[in-house]
Automatic annotation (TrEMBL), chain A:
This is Polysulfide reductase. GO terms for cellular component: plasma membrane. It holds the Pfam family NrfD. PANTHER family: POLYSULPHIDE REDUCTASE NRFD, PTHR43044. Keywords: Cell membrane, Membrane, Transmembrane, Transmembrane helix. It is a multi-pass membrane protein.
Length: 453, 185
């Protein structure tokens, strides 16, 4: 304890300078690997744009595998995945911040940027799935306020706006730091920092306003994030399909989103730690905490997963029988049990061991959880659609099964590249770890106002 | 011998095709009659060929629905008098009570495909109570959403976007305070 107090007392302006050097370094210089990475992401994104143009200009019957039964394919399951990892801002920034878990500090901005990228490309996935983007406006002009689809549009737009504002406000002091500290940057970049810093002087009144607004927004994004996850679940629960006929769906989706949020946070923390040499700030302690969070979230999600499948399986009513047996012992069984093992059991069991909560093992676990998580959502959408209430008869063979076409896969790959590009470019122009928030953490317990310029 | 196998199989196939084709040349006629006995709807299909009743010939019964024909049970074979008798359900919905019923012979070995239809008033008239169509409800159109729901929705949207607007205004307040500080300095 006394060691900690001494540590805080010795945190000086000089140490703050070192911290600034460390955290602003990625902005100053983009290495060759960084440039190749950005070029790769741009190429994948462009390939997705081309695929989308092909989809829109040629017959969708040829370019996509979507048919009358599987009218929602991987575009929608990908949308669910994006919405789920979009909750990372809520969990890793807002909830930890409001509940005074101090270890959130270096993670919060990473989480918020991922959330923005994911929600943005989640929204784009919906537009892609619509097939007729020119009709997007009709959704607003002729939509029904009683419909979950309209609430999804409202929710995503609002959440995205809230996340952007919540990202921007704490960024203001960091922009001044960039302006003052980084001199070898192009003029336009320095001008941008100057313009976006909104005359920040670091006065006590400005700090007070900044922190009060941050607190309000932080409290706001929690229900907003939970809302869009729940509404997305309702899109399914209110559609007539046996597999989606569930009162548990909202909570099931939210618990899944929290688990995926921890996984995506672990993944991003590991990558930034390695790529930008931030071991001093993204420490093993963070991975330890993320590992513990992963166990908790896997446990909660496992509970909802049991509710979601065990109760209907116990009753095995005619309506559910088809789809459940297909998942448990039928055509999709291998797929389903892999998702349960790698998506729930692995993140629950492995991080229970401290050795598995070290950076590299947890990073590998997080990749496994993310892949399983993506397929879990695929398994919610596709088999559900392929088991309608009315029996399938006298239809073309291609309607009775679904495998995504090359166009669909390219577009989905492009949405991933898009999210990664948003996060990468942000980290190239803005500090990905909030300098003042980390410094403030070092000063924990002191009442003085430190002007983080 | 093996080298003749291909030739033999081809010959047999051709012969089989010729035989089958000529066998299916027979034309059957179906006469469809409807009667109601003790509130039980009975549909009879009398099948003849060249003036003679056809026995043991499967006949399928179906009823016209909006897009396609709905099969009524499995195919029933004609009896010794050439009649296939079907019990027709009395709960098939219809707008005006009229139903178009089809009797057909499909893919028989001896007889060509044929189909006849008849119209009968055996449908259960669907009475729709549309008196509540103008009421406000969750299932109604956009202009008929419940008032309380619209009010709550607007309140929630207003509160959230109001908070977001407040946050944006705070940024401008920060800017104003910064300018004041600059003047002071």
């Amino acid at each position: 304890m006394s060691e900690n107090i001494n540590k805080h007392e010795t945190f000086t302006q000089a140490e703050y300078m070192v911290m600034k050097d460390d955290l602003l370094r990625p902005i100053e210089k983009v290495g060759k690997a960084g440039k190749i990475w950005i070029a790769f992401l741009v190429a994948v994104l462009l390939a997705g744009v081309v695929a989308y143009i092909i989809q829109e200009t040629k017959s969708k019957y040829v370019t996509t595998s979507l048919r009358d039964y599987t009218m929602w394919g991987i575009y929608i399951s990908n949308f669910l995945f994006m919405v789920a990892i979009g909750l990372v801002g809520v969990l890793m920034s807002a909830i930890l911040k409001l509940t005074n878990f101090e270890w959130y500090r270096p993670l919060s901005r990473i989480a918020e940027v991922i959330a923005i990228g994911a929600i943005m490309f989640g929204g784009i996935s919906i537009v892609v799935a619509m097939g007729r983007p020119d009709r997007l406006l009709n959704l607003l002009l002729h939509g029904r306020i009683q419909s979950p689809i309209i609430w999804d549009v409202i929710g995503i737009t609002t959440d995205l706006t809230a996340c952007i504002i919540l990202l921007f406000i704490p960024l203001i002091p960091s922009l001044v730091t960039c302006k003052n500290h980084l001199k070898n940057l192009p003029k336009w970049q320095l001008k941008m920092y100057n313009m976006l810093s909104f005359g920040w002087q670091g006065t006590p009144e400005q700090w007070q306003i900044l922190k009060k607004t941050m607190k309000t927004l932080t409290a706001l994004v929690i229900p907003l994030g939970v809302l869009i996850c729940t509404i997305t679940a309702w899109l399914f629960a209110t559609t007539l399909r046996a597999e989606w006929d569930s009162t548990n769906f909202g909570a099931y989706f939210v618990s899944n989103a929290f688990l995926l949020s921890v996984a995506v946070m672990t993944f991003a923390t590991f990558v930034f730690r390695k790529a930008y040499n931030l071991e001093k700030y993204l420490t093993e302690m963070h991975f330890d905490k993320l590992g513990q969070a992963m166990v908790l979230m896997a446990l909660i999600h496992g509970y909802f997963n049991i509710n979601e499948y065990l109760i209907p399986a116990y009753k095995m009513s005619g309506l559910h029988e088809n789809t459940l047996l297909n998942l448990f012992v039928g055509k999709e069984a291998g797929f389903y049990w892999s998702v349960v093992i790698f998506g729930i059991i692995v993140p629950f069991l492995l991080p229970l061991f401290p050795k598995m909560r070290k950076p590299l093992p947890l990073f590998i676990i997080s990749i496994v959880v993310l892949i399983a998580g993506w397929f879990r959502l695929y398994l919610i959408v596709i088999p559900g659609l392929l088991h309608p209430y009315l029996p399938i008869q006298d239809v073309p063979a291609s309607w009775t099964h679904y495998f995504p076409s090359a166009v669909e896969m390219t577009v989905v790959a492009a949405t991933f590249a898009g999210v990664l590009l948003v996060v990468t470019l942000f980290s190239r122009y803005f500090p990905i770890i909030s300098v003042w928030e980390v410094a403030e953490g070092e000063l924990e317990g002191k009442e003085e106002i430190f002007n983080y310029k | 011998m093996k080298k003749y196998n291909y030739f033999l199989i081809t010959c047999i196939s051709i012969l089989f095709s010729i035989t089958t084709a000529s066998a299916q040349d027979k034309v059957a006629k179906i006469a469809l009659t409807f009667e109601t006995v003790d509130s039980l709807h009975v549909c009879k299909a009398f099948v003849t060929s060249e003036g003679q009743p056809v026995v043991e010939l499967p006949v399928k019964l179906s009823v016209k629905r909006l897009f396609t024909k709905l099969p009524i049970g499995d195919a029933i074979a004609t009896d010794s008098t050439g009649v296939a008798t079907f019990e027709f359900p009395n709960d098939i919905p219809s707008k005006d009570g009229k139903l178009t019923i089809f009797a057909s012979i499909v893919e028989d070995e001896n007889y060509m495909d044929t189909e006849v239809s008849g119209e009968v008033k055996w449908g259960q008239i669907v009475v729709s109570d549309n008196s509540n169509v103008d009421e406000r409800s969750f299932s109604a159109g956009r202009d008929r959403a419940p008032i309380y729901f619209i009010a709550i929705s607007l309140l929630i949207i207003g509160l959230i976007w109001g908070t977001l607007l407040y946050a944006v205004l705070q940024v401008f307040k920060i800017k104003r305070l910064g300018k004041l500080e600059e003047i002071k300095e």
